[in-house]
């Protein structure tokens, strides 16, 4: 379970101070599928970065199960990133100088997993996502939809309990967007906690809960009784 209590994030510079989050309190149950919506500058990405240990809060408390994350140093937050969360980004964030296999392998290397086990995990997730034939290719040699599947494989291969997705359908057409949401829904059905940022309400409705941010504050929380069904797409 994730608990945020009066979380505030303030960015400061020589001539400015920006309040990105302003007293945000939120509870996310294990296995929930949460969509965070809001206009540009509302605090969505800041919230996701704090949840993922990519940024530190200025005030307030953040608990991940029994871990008081807000007491962690920036260096210690690396443990959260390695063991609890996987990120999926809008523009894939693949490393152009590495092939698909090596891109998927990167989080496993960070965990010091032995070579034979890395290969087994990569082959398994590549098979599940239908990208076995892409493992030797480089990002410049594959399509946008294929890049997104590679990004998913990199996120899935660590088997972390929390998936954080920042506009994962923003650069995709409708067909590939449905594929992405199908994969996220499948993970959620298997017990993963999925937290999604989107500006697209049609995508947000795939979630079980929609949280709306405005000017760094939560302005509404909508618990959906019947989340939008996923179209059947052959992957």
Descriptive account of the structure:
It is a single chain. The protein has 235 residues and is an alpha/beta fold. It contains seven helices and ten strands. It has helices at residues 44-51, 78-83, 100-110, 115-129, 144-156, 174-189, 201-204, and strands at residues 2-12, 17-28, 33-37, 59-64, 67-68, 85-89, 162-166, 193-197, 209-214, 217-223. It has a six-stranded mixed β-sheet with strand order 6-7-8-3-9-10, sandwiched between helices. A four-stranded antiparallel β-sheet has the order 2-1-4-5, covered by helices on one side. Helix 3 (100-110) packs parallel to helix 5 (144-156) and helix 4 crosses helix 5.
Which structural class best describes the helix and strand composition? alpha/beta
What proportion strand?
25-35%
Oligomer: single chain
The description of the largest β-sheet is: 6 strands, mixed
How confident overall, as mean pLDDT?
89
The rounded Rg comes to 18 Å
Helix and strand run? EEEHEEHEHHHEHEHEE
What is the CA-CA span between the terminal residues?
A: 31 Å
What is the spatial order of strands in the main beta sheet? 6-7-8-3-9-10
Globally, the shape reads globular
Estimate percent helicity. 25-40%
Number of strands: 10
* Total helical segments: 7
Poorly predicted ranges: 231-235
């Amino acid at each position: 379970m994730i608990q945020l209590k009066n979380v505030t994030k303030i960015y400061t510079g020589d001539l400015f101070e920006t309040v990105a989050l302003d007293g945000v309190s939120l509870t996310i149950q294990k296995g929930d599928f949460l969509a965070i919506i809001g206009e540009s500058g509302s605090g969505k990405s800041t919230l996701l970065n704090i949840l993922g240990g990519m940024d530190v809060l200025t005030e307030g408390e953040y608990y991940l199960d029994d871990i008081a994350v807000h007491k962690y140093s920036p260096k210690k937050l690396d443990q959260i990133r390695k063991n609890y969360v996987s990120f999926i980004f809008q523009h894939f964030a693949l490393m152009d100088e590495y092939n698909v296999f090596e891109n998927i392998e990167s989080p496993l290397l960070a965990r010091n997993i032995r070579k034979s086990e890395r290969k087994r995990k990569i082959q398994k997730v590549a098979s599940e996502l239908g990208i076995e034939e892409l493992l030797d290719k480089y990002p410049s040699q594959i399509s946008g939809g294929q890049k997104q599947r590679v990004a998913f494989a990199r996120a899935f291969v660590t088997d972390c309990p929390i998936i954080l997705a920042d506009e994962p359908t923003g650069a995709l057409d409708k067909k590939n967007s449905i594929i992405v949401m199908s994969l996220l829904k499948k993970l959620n059905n298997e017990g993963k906690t999925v937290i999604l940022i989107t500006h697209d309400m049609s995508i947000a409705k795939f979630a079980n809960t929609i949280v709306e941010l405005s000017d760094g504050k939560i302005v509404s929380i909508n618990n959906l009784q019947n989340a939008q069904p996923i179209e059947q797409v052959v992957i």
